[in-house]
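Bit of a strange request maybe. I'm writing a small parser for structure token strings and I need a real example to test against, not something I typed by hand. Could someone generate the tokens for this chain?
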Amino acid sequence: MKLRMEDKVGVRILHIEGAVDAHQFSVIRAGMVKILKNGKNKILVNFESSANVDQDAIRQVSELNAAARELSGEIVLVMSDPKMRGLVENFSKPPLVMCFSAVQEGLDHFNKSKAKAAPEPEDAATKNDEELLKQNQTLKSEVEQLRKQLTETSKGEAKNAKDESTRSKGLLEKLEIDIEKLQSGRRVAPDAETYEAKIGQLEGRIHQLVEELKTHQNDKPKSP
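Reply from user aminoacidic:
Good idea to test on real output. This should exercise your parser:
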């Protein structure tokens, strides 16, 4: 077995020539795990003229592909032998790992996936993180101001207004919980689209709670 690696358009390509036995595939698998740990989440495994790639090897690639997908990436196979492609395609329905007949087809698949998902470049993602941090700081400042207003109002409010104070505090607690969710949103989201949707929902909810608290404060009767 001969193995060589190259990078193309953000995809790590493993070119494998010759038959692959169980021991040799364990070495290949360890190499793919190392690539994923190093932050390369798009891997193309090209079995150029290999034979006897058994179902256990396909199973292991499928398991690694599940891990790569969690990192918003993917592992695909390239096999020129139609019988071997059939083995991969029939391993599961729907297929747990994509298999193509040529390297360019695999690269085209990654390009289509990239265009569909529209993942953010590293610098854009960093910029978004900074914007998110600024938004969080602004919202936290508003929460702190509202907390002070609630404290001052609670000192002078009449006995029969305690329920209103409790309601305000409840809204404030919900607001703080949503801010915490917003801060952890990027870590939780598995891809760019899910991340943007989650952040948008949480931001809308937070602003809604802020406005509700402000309205509630303005509507409350002033103590004599």
